[in-house]
User: Fold these one by one.
Assistant:
Number 1:
Amino acid sequence: MADVLKFIDSELGRFKSELYDFLRIPSISAKSEHDADTRSAAHWLADRMKDAGLSAEVLDTPGHPIVLGEWRGAGDDAPTVLIYGHYDVQPPEPLDLWESPPFEATEREGRIYARGSADDKGQLYMHVKALEAHLATNGTLPINVVVIAEGEEEVGSPNLVPFVEANAERLGCDVVVISDTAMFAPGLPTLLFSLRGLAYFEIVVKGAKSDLHSGEYGGSITNPANALAKIVASLQDEDGRITLPGFYDDVVEWDEETREQIRSLPYDDEEYRKELDVPALAGEKGYSTLERLWIRPTCDVNGMLSGYTGQGAKTVLPNMAMAKVSFRLVPDQRPSRVKESLEAHLKQVTPPGVDVDLIEVQGGRAWRARVEGKFFDAAAEALEEAFGTRPALAGGGGSIPIVGEFEEKLGAPALLVGFSLPGSNLHAPNEWLAIENYEKGIGALALLYEKLAQ
Amino acid sequence: MADVLKFIDSELGRFKSELYDFLRIPSISAKSEHDADTRSAAHWLADRMKDAGLSAEVLDTPGHPIVLGEWRGAGDDAPTVLIYGHYDVQPPEPLDLWESPPFEATEREGRIYARGSADDKGQLYMHVKALEAHLATNGTLPINVVVIAEGEEEVGSPNLVPFVEANAERLGCDVVVISDTAMFAPGLPTLLFSLRGLAYFEIVVKGAKSDLHSGEYGGSITNPANALAKIVASLQDEDGRITLPGFYDDVVEWDEETREQIRSLPYDDEEYRKELDVPALAGEKGYSTLERLWIRPTCDVNGMLSGYTGQGAKTVLPNMAMAKVSFRLVPDQRPSRVKESLEAHLKQVTPPGVDVDLIEVQGGRAWRARVEGKFFDAAAEALEEAFGTRPALAGGGGSIPIVGEFEEKLGAPALLVGFSLPGSNLHAPNEWLAIENYEKGIGALALLYEKLAQ
């Protein structure tokens, strides 16, 4: 193992420069004009897997391809580890807020700035390099490995579950390892105990046959934008509780041990407030900020549009208003039940004089880890050895719906071992990854493979 | 008088073709790329006034110019009539919804389709032609005339009041005549007894320093778009009453005579509902549709914007949300008091965790006519003679803030005598004016000048 870590140390310059090549490919899955780039990133990744000593294929799907890397030389007694990541990235817009070009990795203040550096190319590539370190040093790996890298994570992974179902045998494994999350704080390696799910909708309120003059017609019909405001406002009460009928029926009340573990983390509300630059924190009554972020559901408007939004006054009475509204879910909520509940609620609160359409845009279940067992312990040990401190146990506010799907379809527990840091601007301009974490992360993963085999 | 009307009849073809030249000039006051067009429309109009026998000037303002036409040959015993109109038009967008080009007048089904045909070039030009008919036939006019045509009505007339104040003596008059409104129904000439005022605001809710990931941060801070929905929803109660403190203090309760007059008009809720294609009409409890449109104030969202509004899901927690919210006012409400009241309301209802800015965009007072007196009677007689039926007395839902200003600054009553028709797509694609009303309107105005002198 010492040689493996020494190899990583000596090759770090090359490992970074290869990553920068990967980051240079604008594999923006949401934009069809980047389809060729996205495919090119898949092929680039497959080639690097081969360079590392894996076999690798680019497999077509109805959308962007899936890259599958394999090494099965550890024998039947060794565990098989499925490593999941994604090679697609979010759109970089707004471009003018980037301090350096989004697709030209730039080192500043110990960080690698580029779209995808943290989410998820940088973290996915750590695995490729950790695998290479073993194979280059020892000619072998302590585990059997399947790496599955998709190109549609940022668009809701529409083709991944069908792929997993169709290839369940080939993807069969004992444990799933995913590096697409953050450490709780610099220097504090982290294992996740949960992820929130997502139920994302578009609510469209429709009024008259066309936009109308607000003077000529105002007062006589329901304004769809006013109606939409009433609808959105009705989704939460004064205590920040979501008002949909039965919404909390499936919400797990977490054990006191987990809540105590959350309280023990190094965290300060005032620092968090200052970092976000808001006048005050707010959320569901009766819960701390970290609990609100990890173990409680939310209702957030992600977008809203109606009428005239340019400069100055246009006295239009719009005939349409739209809001994108999403709920972050916690175990054991299900998107389909939230949809039913929202439909029932809309029937109750929609004012007369308008029609409402509810469109389901995206959904994914929440996930709760088994925070025990030999694989979990192995991960904790590897992180402690690499970072010199016992890992934190943290929740994840975001959603990686595939985690629950992997566990269900493959019958293997998932380990969420991530190396980005809070504030690393995922999905925003100036995304970054700490160079130190790129280096230590590769080492930690190399150690993890070793310990998973024990 | 018979000769004047005969002249109008014989010259109608030319009157239309001149109007089509006027309509061809895209004098879109809101768009600076059309500044030259707007100025060119002013000069075209001044030239036509001269052709008609008036003296005419194009007078500069800090914005678009004002055209002033004068004829003062009727002597001191004759009344002086100020005719107001505007030569600027609304932007034509969305262009793809026009069935014929917006700046190429097209006759279909007895209508002239073009931007500005009804609002207000067509109606303004009727006056020029009615004046010409008198002067060409008799070499004189029964009244002294000042025609004031502005080029900024569609952008809130920022320079008109200062102009009126600076030129009060030159604009001195006994009565103001404005043709920028509609008849209540085809064949039913109409005099307005009121106009609503306007108080137009932008409410901007600001949260964190930047957009955030709705998974990573959702639940811990106030979402500005959710907060904006709460604010907008709070502006009206379940009965459609506006909740701002003191909002109704200055609202005039109209006399039973006026309400009876409104009830007597040929109007049907179900026809109106079908025409607008809404599932139901709605508005303030306790009032009929026409009362809601004319004598009761409103609160309408004109535009709303926050976060991601493109296709599909973007899990953004926006850091800004904006709504354009306007109130139509009735006598004796004042925009300044509404602003104070809205400010007080925002302080009460804004949830913690966000900041709110209130921006005043536009304001104008409501107007109430004196529905009696010799000028009013003269107008009623002229309309009855031209259309063969007693004119209706109707309210106006829209706002022409200058009406009240003229009355106050010049000490003369205003007559609102308009010839467009309901549904003529003002401020929308496919604006039109009935050809019959263009012809009859010119005759009615020629008669009006005659009767105002009696």
Number 2:
Amino acid sequence: MKKIVECVPNFSEGRDKDKIEAIAGAFRGKEGVKLLDYSADRDHNRMVVTAVGEPEALKAAVVEAIGVAVEVIDLRVHTGEHPRIGAADVVPFIPVRGVTMEEAVELSKDVAREVAQRYGLPVYLYERSASAPHRTNLADVRKGQFEGLADKMLTPEWKPDFGPDSPHPTAGAAVIGARMYLIAYNVNLNTDRLDIAKAIARRIRHSNGGLRYCKAMGVDLAEKGIAQVSMNLTDYTQTAIYQAQEMVRMEAARYGVTIAGGELIGLMPLGALVDTAAYYLGLEDFDESRILESHLME
Amino acid sequence: MKKIVECVPNFSEGRDKDKIEAIAGAFRGKEGVKLLDYSADRDHNRMVVTAVGEPEALKAAVVEAIGVAVEVIDLRVHTGEHPRIGAADVVPFIPVRGVTMEEAVELSKDVAREVAQRYGLPVYLYERSASAPHRTNLADVRKGQFEGLADKMLTPEWKPDFGPDSPHPTAGAAVIGARMYLIAYNVNLNTDRLDIAKAIARRIRHSNGGLRYCKAMGVDLAEKGIAQVSMNLTDYTQTAIYQAQEMVRMEAARYGVTIAGGELIGLMPLGALVDTAAYYLGLEDFDESRILESHLME
């Protein structure tokens, strides 16, 4: 089985078409790498690339893309609504297929080491790759943004994991690490009462005692005239989609509310689908290898 | 997206290891073809190969394998429990990915034409490729077996679709065609009463007024102490797995019986899994393209 990793790097350029294409171009025409999607936002002045590939091939493409970003983006003149600390702002690696989290962590460290060395870029490791608990959350690492980076780096807590002890003059710093695949999954309720959606969200999410890898909030879908429980499942191998749905159903029942349907934002890995189907069909000994197409991807 | 077809040819050799390997070998080391499985049965004196691949590449491998079978198998001295009409007894093509049934039918006819010409083999088209209703079912085409073939071929109803009007002296005839992917899916009941499993099977199967693409029978799983509804779903794109399960649940309820679990025999296509998950999660606009891995197979 071919090993597959996903990378969803965010770059601080959402306006200049030539620069956007130059960065995305690093993921094109590379054996073993597939550019799934890229999109740029003018207001955020930021672009997000989604690429998958075999670890070594993907690593090379990401290193190249970061090099292009360092070359073409100048944070000193960068404005936009989205917080950012550098040109290659955040670079998460996500294990997809035949790859352990440990391998994804190693891959992220290899990339961090290489871009620090090659481009003189300070790099912070975050999420599962973090070298200390206070560096786990992106928001903490990015706090103060590019403008506050030079001062922040003077403190020992924010000495970078790789690279120089001061910001790259135009490209700031990069935040690189490995994390689990995040599934954005929403459940629509047969009610327009936002308070009910919020109450359900509080019951099912980790922060209030609910499912460990579930973040949730109540959302008012005014146009549709319904309320929604909007969720991020941050580790679908531990907290499955069907658990999230059934927990919503269970909590909704106390208000006499039923589920109107579900909604997946973006993509989900085959493993998440397999789990869910296995639960509802009561299948034992069922895994990805029972899906015909999984044998076409070796 | 790469087009993928499956072929599950049955050859009349299940004892001679060299011959078995020679036939299976036609599917090895071919660009665009993947040998998923092959197994031989001594009692049946028969082997079944499961291969997938791009249409043209798979076609070439199948033609080659039939050639090997014609060369190494002699039906005049063949004994076994399984009915058979020829060395390459039955050769079904199944659309898997990006391929219509019409294309699979054309592919089966191409193979039929080529093996008839190249090996002097009479070929009957069956299932979706059949040239007349009485040739649709394999059992009808194979009736009389190799031993009765010469007489059968004297009647105009059994003039072959391709090749000579009399049997190949040692290889008989071949039955080739296209059919849908068949999902073998069983539902275990929380009862040991075979009569209940049989009654449920009668209600849900097509032959008695049930689901159009569902064959079903009641089975006694004596070792497990339970009864089972054993099903073949002959077109999962029309009759979905979740429909079959929910119909079993509905019928079981009248006997106060619940479902103990499900069982998938062999593999199922991703599309069947997507259908089932979409139903239970109430997802709209959900298809294979929402599965990350489906983008790795282009």
